[in-house]
Write a structure and sequence with these properties.
Elements lengths: L12 H17 L2 H5 L4 H13 L5 E5 L7 H7 L3 E6 L2 H10 L4 E4 L16 E7 L10 H11 E12 L3 E8 L2 E7 L2 H10 L2 E11 L9 E10 L2
Parallel strand pairs: 1-2, 1-4, 2-3, 4-5
Antiparallel strand pairs: 5-9, 6-7, 8-9
Length: 228
């Protein structure tokens, strides 16, 4: 099933323009992203945690799915119903090619709230690997609350971000300029818990991308459960 919604993004005009510009950058980057980040140990491990914790045929949302590799494919192969969302048309096209067993939508994260313009239903789990870092900090708590509302009671949530004390900071990335946000570990945990999630476990990995214009980074992974 190939659904291609156009997003009616909300927020200030400047942030909207930046977000669309970032999506266009990822359109141009395409599958070079997977070439630049070939070893996703933390991401694979977090998805395995979900696979071990969820019953068969669970419904999972991949928020900021990129090319669908490795996570959407990993979850489909585990027998889950997988829905992927990304604002980059190029990434969604690749994901549909690489993971035909999942359903992918071109949508803005801001449009996904229950009862909103593109209500995708409820999910047993949500994964957000390095997608929330593309938002300004002012939007991240609200996005986490949206994730909370998208989950069934007791649903699981796993997310990752790069540890950095920055707010919508412009960086070079694979020949393009993008904006990223981050938190220090304790601050990120606090933001997650304030959005009514219980942190079950957390891990971190030092990672050096296979490209020259991105420095080594500390990747934080939080495996969580919805409270309430």
């Amino acid at each position: 099933m190939e659904v291609d919604y156009e997003s009616d993004a909300v927020g200030s005009e400047g942030i909207l323009r930046d977000r669309e510009g970032q999506a266009e950058a990822f359109d141009a980057i395409g599958d070079r992203y997977d070439e630049a980040f070939p070893y996703k140990k933390g991401q694979l491990a977090a998805a395995e945690w979900l696979i071990g914790a969820l019953p068969a045929r669970s419904r999972v949302l991949d928020l900021g799915c990129g090319t669908g590799l490795p996570t959407a494919r990993q979850l489909v192969e585990a027998g889950f119903e997988v829905v992927g969302v990304d604002l980059s048309r190029g990434m969604v096209d690749l994901a549909r090619e690489y993971v035909p067993g999942a359903t992918f939508h071109r949508l803005d994260i801001a449009d996904l709230g229950p009862g909103g313009p593109h209500d995708l239903g409820r999910f047993d789990a949500v994964v957000a690997f390095f997608s929330l870092l593309m938002l300004p900090r002012t939007e991240i708590p609200g996005t986490l609350r949206t994730v909370h509302d998208l989950l069934v009671p007791g649903g699981l949530f796993t997310l990752s971000m790069v540890e950095a004390d920055v707010d919508y900071f412009k960086i070079p990335f694979l020949g393009h300029l993008i904006r990223v946000s981050g938190y220090l570990r304790d601050d990120l945990r606090q933001v997650i818990e304030e959005a009514e999630f219980e942190v079950i476990e957390e891990t971190s990995y030092s990672y050096a991308p296979a490209i020259s214009d991105v420095p080594p980074e500390e990747q934080l992974f939080f495996n969580c459960a919805r409270r309430g």
